[in-house]
């Protein structure tokens, strides 16, 4: 309920994007109330972030017209309003809050009105009838606030109930932006849910060292990869430079794939081309240009690799990476992909380095308003960070974008060395960018990214097994939920659901705004963390959100998103191409909490069948 | 060239854009279909497409252009979309030699997956970066002659030759299809969902005739 004396926010949102009406109410401590009515045609215009109640640090009670009511930290109001205005929501979040591109101002007129400080109304209308108020059916959940978060810990800094309340809260409402950097390492398995504050300090120091070692290996690879004059392992080079770093770190509480240990060998091929180039079709390995190509004799040999995979294919994966032995035997077994094996080659670290830089300098600026400290980075610091990772062609970028690009390169390269089975695949930078925004330190961002990639890495596997499995699940969900619609997809030969490929690969990052994406991911991570922690289905049965945690929440959300458009697709689309165009142009049209509501409904009814 | 409405066309041709990551495929497409260019255009994940109609010999030709991811990793999904394409722009970056050297592999892959009648053009993009150029126009032309394809140098940034390149490919497809239609005695359109059509290399005429359909 609304605490007395708190400010009250009313958002009245009607019509499409440019015609939103926002009403802000304040109730000062002396209980005299002010009602600030915001209408586009009245009073002065100011950007949304200059409205005190949207940017200040006070708690703002909010209520929607459907009776849902809650109290959220005021910073969240931006995100919350964004997700609550349905069809226009995404765009509003991006434009009014995010960028000046649309020059959407919000007109505010303050009129004193006594006694109705609690009035808060949402009127949402959109072009899509399916996107009404996000909480039309279910009470809106509160975010995990700073205060609640602090209350969850014992004096020793342990989560009181093994993280159950914490995860329950996050799955239903997301996290207050101000504490994300603190909470994400728990959510992503960097810290164990049962760890104490002291243990976490040790883990953090250890992980920092491990990350720094990975970065050093990256630098070694960059500096030595084309000299290839003798059989030399990266570890040997490593020892020459800093012998003390070669001790294998003993992580006291490492996450499950921290055991990944490998050595990258650089092996001179007696003047011949590297082993990579002996694969049937090697052109892709020759992406380096100019003189470098002539000198390229290095080969990266993955010595041992114990990265978590969903099957016991680590060894064959190593072979795939090397392009030796019998490559791609899994591919030949996977039916339709068999014909493509001849054209497949492995990618090398050099290729990854090049593509990482390519993607880093074209990252978009959407993150900037979410990290004022990184946005304000000086030109000097930005250039230094760019030089440290040998970034090129960035002269057209603002300092903050140079800095962000350099961080992307540093962390992605380290990841490619850490998980050479995956290396780098386009789309991974989309996943990392929000993490870099939230986590100011590279090493923390890296380990969060590792936690994220524990599941997401399967999307980027060379053999496409992961992506095909996921598309098959989306297809199965749709078939189980709506046979008629599935029949229509079959008729269009679209039942394989390839039209949601991008959504699966980059987990809605291209369809949702920054804030929406992060909310969705947090809920998804909470599900995955609950499963990792072994919090069983029975534990969730008591709570209102009956859907048990699932590793496949995202796939249910994708199916929900397609099912929301079933009528349009059945009535108007007569080819898979048209469905794909619809799916690829959803940016700004999705309501993330409606999507999660629908996804949870699907889980409740279907999770036993899928 | 006027931009026409989406549904008003006589012919629909599927054209694919292929080439290494970062050569400018997506920007060539957005320049042609929306007259837009962005240095921040994100990497293409899988495939995306856009359409634009142009007029050729008093007929309206709608080009459905499929933009593909350049990274090796996405090759399996992107090559699935080559099928049914009647035209292709195989793009390289005139400032990066490796992207030029990879053309032969792209061409091989394209020919493995498309009709032998498909109209192919080699496109050297980023021609505005004159001081960084490493692939000469002559080298480009020579390869195009060897490979029996069309050739054009473009700049999506400066909007140089972009319309010209697409128009030339579409016009040539139109001529090929018209010739075949004349032989087959039938009005020809090309289905957008090319994957469903089985094209026999030995029987080009019937292959094109099979493509008759409306969209």
Give a quick rundown of the structure.
By secondary structure, chain A is an alpha+beta fold. Chain A has helices at about 50-55, 75-85, 90-100, 145-150, 165-175, 180-185, 195-225, 235-240, 290-295, 315-320, 330-335, 350-360, 370-375, 380-390, 400-420, 430-440, 440-455, 465-480, 485-490, 500-505, 515-530, 535-540, 555-565, 565-570, 575-585, 590-605; strands at about 10, 20-25, 35-40, 45, 60-65, 70-75, 105-110, 230-235, 265, 300. In chain A, a hairpin with a 5-residue loop joins strand 5 (about 60-65) and strand 6.
| Percent range of helical residues of chain B | 25-40%
Strand residues, percent of chain A: 5-15%
CATH topology description of chain B: Rossmann fold
Provide the CATH top-level class of chain B. Alpha Beta
Class by helix and strand content of chain B? Answer: alpha/beta
Tell me the helix content of chain A: 40-55%
Count of DSSP E strands of chain A? Answer: 10
Largest sheet of chain B: 6 strands, mixed
* Cα-to-Cα separation, first versus last residue of chain B: 24 Å
CATH superfamily of chain B: P-loop containing nucleotide triphosphate hydrolases
Q: Give the CA-based shape of chain A.
A: globular
Termini gap of chain A: 39 Å
**Number of beta strands of chain B:** 6
């Amino acid at each position: 309920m609304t605490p007395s004396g708190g400010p009250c926010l009313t958002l009245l949102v009607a019509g499409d994007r440019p015609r939103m009406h926002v009403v802000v109410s304040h109730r000062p401590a002396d209980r005299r109330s002010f009602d600030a009515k915001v209408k586009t045609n009245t009073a002065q215009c100011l950007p949304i972030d200059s409205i005190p109640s949207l940017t200040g640090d006070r708690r703002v009670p909010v209520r929607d017209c459907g009776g849902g009511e809650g109290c959220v930290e005021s910073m969240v109001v931006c995100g919350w309003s964004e997700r609550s205005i349905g069809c226009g929501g995404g765009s509003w979040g991006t434009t009014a809050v995010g960028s000046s591109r649309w020059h959407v101002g919000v007109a505010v007129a303050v009129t004193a009105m006594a006694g109705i400080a609690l009035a808060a109304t949402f009127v949402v209308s959109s072009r899509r009838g399916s996107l009404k108020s996000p909480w039309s059916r279910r009470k809106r959940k509160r975010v995990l606030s700073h205060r609640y978060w602090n209350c969850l810990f014992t004096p020793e800094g342990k989560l009181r109930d093994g993280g159950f309340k914490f995860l329950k809260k996050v799955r239903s409402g997301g996290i207050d932006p101000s504490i994300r950097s603190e909470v994400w390492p728990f959510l992503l398995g960097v810290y164990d849910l049962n760890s104490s504050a002291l243990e976490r300090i040790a883990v953090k120091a250890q992980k920092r060292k491990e990350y720094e070692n990975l970065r050093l290996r990256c630098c070694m690879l960059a500096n030595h990869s084309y000299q290839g004059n003798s059989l030399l392992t990266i570890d040997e080079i490593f020892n020459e430079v800093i012998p003390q770093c070669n001790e294998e770190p003993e992580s006291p509480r490492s996450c499950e794939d921290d055991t990944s240990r490998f050595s990258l060998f650089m092996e001179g091929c007696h003047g011949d081309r590297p082993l990579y180039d002996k694969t049937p079709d090697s052109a892709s390995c020759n992406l380096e240009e100019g003189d470098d190509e002539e000198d390229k004799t290095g080969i990266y040999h993955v010595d041992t690799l114990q990265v978590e995979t969903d099957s016991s294919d680590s060894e064959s994966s190593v072979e795939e990476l090397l392009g030796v032995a019998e490559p791609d035997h899994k591919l030949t077994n996977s039916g339709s992909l068999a014909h493509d094996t001849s054209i497949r080659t492995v990618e090398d670290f050099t290729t990854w380095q090049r593509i990482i830089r390519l993607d880093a300098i074209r990252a978009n600026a959407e993150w900037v308003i979410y990290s004022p400290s990184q946005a304000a980075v000086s030109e000097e610091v930005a250039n230094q960070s760019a030089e440290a990772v040998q970034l090129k062609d960035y002269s057209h970028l603002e300092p903050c974008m140079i800095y962000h690009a350099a961080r992307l390169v540093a962390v992605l390269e380290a990841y490619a060395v850490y998980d050479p089975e995956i290396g780098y695949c386009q789309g991974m930078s989309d996943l990392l960018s929000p993490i870099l925004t939230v986590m100011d330190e590279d090493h923390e961002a890296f380990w969060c990214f590792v936690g994220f990639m524990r599941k997401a890495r399967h999307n980027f596997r060379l053999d496409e097994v992961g992506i095909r499995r996921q598309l098959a699940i989306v297809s199965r969900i749709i078939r189980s939920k709506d046979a008629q619609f599935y029949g229509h997809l079959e008729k269009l030969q679209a039942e394989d659901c390839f039209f949601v490929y991008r959504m699966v690969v980059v987990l809605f990052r291209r369809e949702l705004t920054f804030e929406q994406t992060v909310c969705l991911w947090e809920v998804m991570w909470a599900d995955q963390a609950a499963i990792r922690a072994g919090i069983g289905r029975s534990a969730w049965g008591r709570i209102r959100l009956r859907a048990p945690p699932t590793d496949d929440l995202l796939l249910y959300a994708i199916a929900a998103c397609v099912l929301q458009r079933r009528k349009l697709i059945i009535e108007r689309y007569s080819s898979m191409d048209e469905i794909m165009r619809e799916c690829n142009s959803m940016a700004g049209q999705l309501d993330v909490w409606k999507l999660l509501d629908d996804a949870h409904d699907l889980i409740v009814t279907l999770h036993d069948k899928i | 060239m006027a931009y026409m409405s989406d549904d008003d066309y006589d012919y629909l041709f599927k054209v694919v854009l292929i080439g290494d990551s970062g050569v400018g495929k997506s920007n060539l497409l957005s320049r042609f279909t929306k007259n837009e260019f962005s240095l921040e255009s994100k990497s293409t994940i899988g495939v995306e497409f856009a359409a634009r109609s142009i007029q050729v010999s008093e007929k309206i030709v709608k080009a459905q252009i499929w933009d593909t991811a350049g990274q090796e990793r996405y090759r399996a999904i992107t090559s699935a979309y080559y099928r049914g394409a009647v035209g292709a722009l195989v793009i390289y970056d005139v400032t990066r030699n490796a992207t030029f050297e990879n053309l032969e592999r792209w061409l091989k892959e394209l020919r493995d997956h498309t009709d032998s009648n498909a109209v192919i053009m080699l496109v050297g993009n980023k021609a505005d970066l004159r001081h960084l150029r490493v692939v000469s126009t002559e080298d480009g032309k020579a390869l195009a002659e060897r490979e029996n394809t069309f050739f054009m140098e473009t700049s999506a940034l400066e909007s140089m030759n972009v319309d010209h390149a697409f128009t030339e490919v579409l016009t040539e497809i139109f001529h090929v299809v018209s010739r075949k239609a004349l032989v087959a005695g039938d009005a020809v359109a090309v289905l957008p969902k090319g994957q469903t059509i089985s094209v026999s290399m030995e029987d080009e005429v019937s292959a094109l005739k099979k493509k008759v359909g409306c969209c």
